[in-house]
């Protein structure tokens, strides 16, 4: 059990075979301790000797040197003799005496080395005082230019860092240079400007307080390193955090002369940092700088920037493909991104103030079509990469939208150019977006479902799904139109399921109540509908139970959907009639809110009705002006100056002529001011200022582009803002603004009133059902022969007769619900064809004669009868 037990109870003897015992170890420890003690005593002795030397020095200073310096100071203050003597007694001065000595020194003659020595003595004096007098003495130095160079020579250092600026000590006087440069200094005549600039250029970024102060002095100086130094200062200034008085002092940086001079002396890529910073620091002067850049045309600034950018490695990669997260981060820190930012700021401004014919003139345009196409390819790839990595890219999105708007108005890019293939728009793409919308709607309506609980429990959206949602809301034209229509229908279906709760469905099924009761009087369609339905607001998403009344009482018909369609058609026909005054029309008969109407409630109800049509897929046959439709999209599409042509061609031509005059003939006094005349609701002519005190601001060559912009903005936006807001308030009660923001103006018009294409007879025939007929019966063959021979107008009348609308659904007749149908109405050939619009049914007698069928059919569809004919 005890394997080591030998039976001997005595302790075994320990033998040290190394020859060293405990006494030896203790001896070495004692020797080491003794050596340490001797060293400490030696250090203490040296410290004592040093202290004695210091005491002797200070005794000598106090007893001999300081009295001499003080005596010399008193004598010198009475009768200044030389700068060298001032250097000798400088360290004995207090602040008030220092000010006097500096003033008197500035009046003396001295050798350059004496001025340098004085500057060094001042630096040492500031350091010895712990920087507490730095700002005061620097302000004093600023008054005497003869002393300034010596101070800078003394304070200049070989290497400085932002961290070192906050350190105290003689080895870091660079902070004094920067402090000095924040003072209100007259820089003219200083021969060491490059020393100042060189000091600034040693920093990647300056402290905010110093950068703001230095910036106020930068407008006075020049020099070879001016632009690099200005770049450092501007990049260190926080945007939107500059005192108003400093902004006033920065005005010279925004002058025509300054912009012209730096562009003449430096190439565009060198000044990108400066120009981009100037644009961001002082937004109110942004247009001023961009206008100057846009007027340079030999060659255009944008073209030069794009040429140099397109040849760079990062842009070439973006042209071919996208970027990884790391590559995007590196690119955003590169000089190429600065150049791209300047290019986009300039091009965005130019697109705002440029007319379509100028844009399309390849000889004078800022970028040619081929260059625009290449730039848009790069921006699409960069934008998708930045959105994927959740990086803000508002400027890129804005330019993409602007160019897309031009291309939508008058195409110049290849068909399908805007679609982004790498988005992989497939079933899963659509499903993910519908699920997110379903959760949003459930939360909005306070309805909790199993699906919404499951989605809410997820920590966050995946990067890919977040990207898809952002692109759908910000850049919907990256996604095919048919896909967006599918999403629109799916979003509405989800919303409808939330609106129509189980209680509503139960009541409608068991009580026979078909929905909101809506009696409509013929001849007073809009008034009667407004009186009955305006108060319902978003409740109008629920079904309506329409009952028409004419002079003889109620009309026949049960609303299974067809009466609702006829109701919306007849009420909107009445309401959008320009004689009512709610809406006005352009020369092309396109509608927009009447600027003189103030009945915002009726406008809101009209928005309800249009929203109801979109919600129920009921087409409304009214065309709206594009500048008005663009306002539906919450900023994803904006009006341009060219939209003014559709509203007021004469005003548009006048502005185009004005632009031509100032662009070609220079400054001209045309007697114009920043004001405009308009007619109020009573027909009286009034004057409105376009800017603050605009009637006192003349239009000149320097501001004519802004004048053109302000006039167009007033006509297209400001004058109808109240009316538009009222209409959209009603529309958004039924249709979520994010849904309509997926479409441009032309696409929205198709959603409202159907596609532009002619009636597709083959498509209608393919999706038609028959009752009492076979598709091989002679009457059916005759019907299609007659229908195909109709003029387009009569084809649309037939559609309106049967379905209550004259255009095909946007997705074709396969989307018509219920399907188009023809039923045998018997052999009473003296009867006319009739229709049940509620089920899209044509009741066609079995005429057996094609001529009789044509005659009866044309009479029926041209009679404009309602349900009475049925």
UniProtKB/TrEMBL annotation:
Q: Specify residue ranges for compositional bias: Basic and acidic residues.
A: 29-47
PROSITE patterns reported for this sequence: HECT
Q: Which reaction does it catalyse?
A: S-ubiquitinyl-[E2 ubiquitin-conjugating enzyme]-L-cysteine + [acceptor protein]-L-lysine = [E2 ubiquitin-conjugating enzyme]-L-cysteine + N(6)-ubiquitinyl-[acceptor protein]-L-lysine
The top EC class is transferase
Q: Which residues form the HECT domain?
A: 536-870
What are the start and end residues of every segment in region (Disordered)? 1-47
Q: Which Pfam families match?
A: HECT (PF00632)
Q: Which GO terms describe its biological process?
A: cellular response to heat; cytoplasm protein quality control by the ubiquitin-proteasome system; ERAD pathway; free ubiquitin chain polymerization; protein polyubiquitination; ubiquitin-dependent protein catabolic process
Q: Does the keyword Transferase apply?
A: yes
Query: Which InterPro entries does this one have?
Result: E3A/B/C-like, HECT_dom, Hect_E3_ubiquitin_ligase
Q: What's an example GO cellular component term for this entry?
A: proteasome complex
Its annotated pathway reads: Protein modification; protein ubiquitination
Give EC number(s), comma-separated.
Answer: 2.3.2.26
Q: Where is the active site?
A: 838
What UniProt keywords apply to this chain's record, in alphabetical order? Transferase, Ubl conjugation pathway
One GO term in the molecular function aspect is: ubiquitin protein ligase activity
PANTHER family referenced in this protein's UniProt entry, alphabetically: UBIQUITIN-PROTEIN LIGASE E3C
Tell me the protein's name.
HECT-type E3 ubiquitin transferase
Q: Which organism is it from?
A: Yarrowia lipolytica (strain CLIB 122 / E 150) (Yeast)
Q: What is the lineage of its organism?
A: Eukaryota, Fungi, Dikarya, Ascomycota, Saccharomycotina
């Amino acid at each position: 059990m005890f394997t080591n037990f030998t039976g001997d109870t005595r302790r075994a003897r320990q033998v040290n075979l190394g020859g060293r015992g405990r006494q030896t170890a203790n001896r070495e420890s004692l020797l080491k301790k003794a050596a340490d003690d001797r060293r400490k005593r030696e250090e203490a002795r040296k410290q004592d000797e040093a202290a004695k030397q210091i005491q002797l020095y200070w005794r000598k200073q106090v007893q001999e040197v300081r009295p001499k310096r003080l005596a010399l100071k008193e004598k010198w203050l009475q009768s200044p003799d030389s700068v060298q003597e001032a250097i000798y007694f400088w360290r004995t001065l207090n602040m008030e005496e220092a000010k006097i000595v500096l003033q008197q020194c500035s009046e003396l003659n001295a050798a350059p080395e004496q001025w340098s020595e004085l500057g060094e003595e001042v630096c040492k004096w500031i350091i010895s005082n712990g920087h507490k007098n730095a700002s005061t003495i620097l302000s004093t130095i600023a008054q005497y230019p003869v002393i300034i160079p010596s101070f800078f020579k003394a304070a200049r250092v070989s290497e400085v860092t932002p961290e070192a600026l906050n350190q105290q000590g003689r080895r870091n006087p660079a902070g004094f240079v920067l402090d000095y440069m924040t003072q209100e200094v007259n820089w003219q005549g200083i021969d060491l400007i490059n020393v100042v600039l060189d000091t600034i250029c040693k920093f990647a970024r300056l402290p905010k307080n110093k950068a703001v102060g230095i910036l106020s002095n930068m407008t006075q100086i020049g020099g070879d390193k001016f632009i690099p130094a200005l770049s450092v200062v501007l990049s260190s200034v926080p945007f939107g955090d500059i005192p108003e008085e400093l902004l006033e002092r920065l005005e010279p940086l925004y002058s025509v002369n300054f912009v012209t001079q730096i562009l003449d002396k430096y190439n565009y890529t060198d000044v990108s940092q400066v120009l981009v910073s100037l644009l961001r620091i002082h937004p109110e002067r942004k247009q001023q700088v961009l206008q100057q850049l846009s007027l340079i045309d030999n060659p255009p600034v944008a073209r030069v920037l794009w040429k140099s950018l397109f040849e760079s490695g990062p842009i070439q990669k973006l042209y071919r493909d996208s970027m990884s997260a790391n590559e995007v981060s590196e690119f955003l820190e590169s000089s190429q991104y600065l150049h791209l930012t300047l290019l986009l700021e300039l091009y965005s401004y130019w697109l705002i103030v440029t007319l379509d014919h100028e844009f399309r003139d390849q000889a004078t345009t800022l970028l040619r079509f081929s260059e625009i196409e290449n730039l848009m390819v790069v921006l699409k790839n960069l934008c998708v990469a930045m959105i994927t990595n959740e990086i803000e890219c508002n400027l890129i999105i804005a330019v993409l939208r602007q160019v897309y708007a031009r291309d939508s108005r008058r195409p110049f890019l290849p068909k399908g150019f805007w679609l982004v293939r790498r988005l992989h728009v497939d079933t899963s793409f659509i499903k993910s977006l519908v699920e997110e919308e379903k959760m949003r709607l459930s939360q909005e309506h306070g309805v909790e479902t199993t699906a919404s609980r499951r989605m809410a429990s997820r920590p966050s959206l995946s990067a890919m799904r977040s990207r898809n949602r952002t692109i759908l809301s910000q850049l919907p034209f990256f996604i095919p139109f048919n896909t967006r229509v599918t999403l629109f229908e799916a979003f509405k279906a989800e919303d409808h399921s939330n609106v129509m709760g189980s209680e509503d469905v139960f009541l409608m099924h068991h009580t026979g109540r078909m929905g909101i009761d809506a009696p409509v009087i013929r001849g007073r369609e809009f008034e009667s509908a407004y009186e009955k339905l305006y108060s319902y607001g978003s409740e109008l998403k629920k079904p309506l139970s329409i009952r028409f009344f004419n002079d003889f009482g109620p009309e026949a018909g049960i609303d299974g959907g067809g009466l609702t369609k006829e109701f919306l058609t007849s009420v909107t026909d009445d309401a959008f009639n320009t004689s009512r005054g709610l809406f006005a029309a352009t020369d092309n008969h396109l509608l927009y809110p009447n600027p003189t109407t103030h009945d915002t409630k009726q406008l809101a109800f009209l928005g309800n009705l249009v929203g109801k049509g979109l919600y129920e897929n009921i087409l409304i046959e009214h065309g709206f002006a594009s500048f008005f439709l663009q306002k539906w999209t919450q900023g994803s599409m904006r009006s341009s100056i060219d939209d003014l042509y559709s509203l007021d061609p004469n005003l548009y031509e006048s502005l185009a002529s004005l632009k031509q005059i100032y662009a070609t003939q220079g400054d001209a006094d045309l007697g114009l001011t920043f004001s405009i005349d308009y007619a109020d609701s009573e027909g009286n002519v009034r004057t409105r200022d376009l800017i603050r005190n605009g009637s006192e601001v003349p239009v000149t060559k320097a501001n004519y582009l802004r004048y053109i912009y302000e006039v167009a903005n007033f006509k297209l936006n400001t004058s109808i803002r109240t009316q538009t807001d009222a209409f959209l308030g009603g529309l958004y009660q039924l249709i979520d603004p994010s849904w309509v923001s997926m479409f441009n103006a032309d696409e929205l018009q198709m959603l409202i009133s159907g596609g532009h294409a002619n009636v597709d007879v083959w498509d209608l025939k393919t999706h038609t059902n028959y009752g009492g007929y076979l598709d091989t019966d002679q009457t059916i063959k005759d019907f299609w022969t007659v229908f195909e021979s109709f003029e387009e107008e009569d084809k649309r009348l037939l559609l309106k007769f049967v379905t209550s609308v004259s255009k095909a659904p946007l997705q074709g007749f396969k989307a018509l619900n219920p399907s188009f149908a023809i039923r045998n109405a018997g052999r009473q050939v003296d009867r006319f064809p009739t229709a049940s619009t509620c089920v899209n049914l044509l009741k066609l007698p079995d005429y057996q004669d094609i001529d009789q069928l044509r005659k009866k059919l044309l009479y029926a569809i041209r009679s404009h009868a309602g349900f009475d004919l049925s």
